Amino acid sequence: MFATRTRTSKIALQVIATLMAVPFLLPLIAMVQGSLAGRGFRNYVLVWETGVLLTYLRNSVIISVFAILIVYVATMLAAFGFSKLRIRGKEFYFWALLLALTMPEAVLLTPLFITASTFDMYNQLIAVILPVAALQIPFATLLARNFYDGIPSEIIEAARVDGANIWQVFRRVVLPLTKPIAAAIVVLTLIAAWNAYLIPLLMLNDPQSQVLTLLPSFFVSQWTNDQTGVLAAAVIAAIPMIIAYLALQKYFERGLSAGALK
Amino acid sequence: MAAPTSLRRGGAAARATPGQGHKHRGRKHTANGLLWIAPALILVVGLIYFSIGYTAYVATLDWNGFILSQPTSVGFDNFRAMFTDAVFWRSLQHTLIFFVVTFTVQTWLGFTFAAIMHSKIRLRGLYKVVVFVPTVLAPAAMAPIFRQIFEVRGQLNQLLTAIGLESWTNAWLADGRTAMGVVMLATIWQWTGLTFILFYAAMSQIDPEVLEAARVDGASNTRTLRSIVWPMCKGTTVALATLGLIGALKTFDWPFLITRGGPNRSTEFLGTYIYHTMMQEKRFGYAAAISVALLVLALTCGVIMSLRTQRSGRK
Question: Is the interface score ipTM higher than 0.90?
Fold first, then answer.
């Protein structure tokens, strides 16, 4: 975009790029540095000694895995139905899903709180998994339907003529073609589930059994005003997502941009 | 799941899906289609639509949220109270200012950065990762460091003192005017990467010959960017604006985690206001009424968004 014909302009552009990028790194650097201040690595030991780290990590993993599974299965089936099958009132159902697209989490607060206290569902991971998954489904279905629409119906017809039933067609012919959009949906759901804060905050009120995003606040409740320890907890909460992003960079970037544009 | 199916014939039955160019031949499969969409529908209707209905019902009550205490029905009183509630209007005002500022800054940064990354430059991969990584991080994990940087004895004030600008130091989070700035900054820090990636993708679609032609005609770098690249990215900008507006309405994590809506409600958003009204003041009916207002606003934005998508799909 910028034509850089001289050496000076090349260097200038490089400097501008660096000046623009570095501020994005600063909070992360400050965070790691702060987490090692004072007692140094002892801060991390203190976080470990709270004894909840593994439970929180396990809960985050369980919530993410099940949210992804639910969203994947529900979305792939629904989008296929919406795109390729004849269903009476199909567009009505589709609009019903789309209307839920812009749903702010905060609107779920009252009903979730009351449902959970009525049925005593507090501190059960399912009480987090289901709302998180339900909030992702409308969007994921929209993405997947657009993708299925691009798959020619002739492929399905051909397989049908060869005697496959609709389920076999879906499993063996259509599903293998959907990998790109499935990857986007998995990544979007992973980010939403792993980073979820409000719903776990509301539903998991036993401090011994929460999720990784609540680790910093748990640490605050144990050690008031221990800033360095809180930062160590925050670093621990951030690390898994950074690793996931670096390992699956391409899918994250594609997934998030597919998610933003449709 | 392998439901019995029958093929239907007949050209008249073919109904092209909206936004799709090619014609279907008149064969579609009726495989008890409802079974396919049922899991998604049950989850969405069962949770989201149930929640909407329930919230609308609670919005007509005066209730402290305890199962055993009897709610009183108050009709539309909660809504009436809302319209004269200064905090509600302030929250809306915050949302609007927040949207205008974060959207403008993110668009400017993301667009410029995308243009630079499309130029001849070293370490492109590294820059991209650095700018994009905040997008995937949980606000809950990042809020402690944002709080610390802007504390009275935090890094920012230390830096200002060190370079002799002691008079500029401030209790950033305790000052209503600057606390909102910190919340916006955290949001911009998080989402510029996404704006950048989208502009980067949009710019990949531009034919290099167009740019070359402009240069031959003597257009400068900034001129080319402003008069050619920027108009060609308009679709992306509009999409980002609608996303940003809905995002602003949904804002909860950053203000809640950094300032709790304070000081003195100066960073209160609808989401945080609902949370406080419900969890601290135990006014469930009133919290539900604000939720309904929030939902209506978000839905309006959503409908505008899908109308726009349909229109651009048909072109």
Answer: no
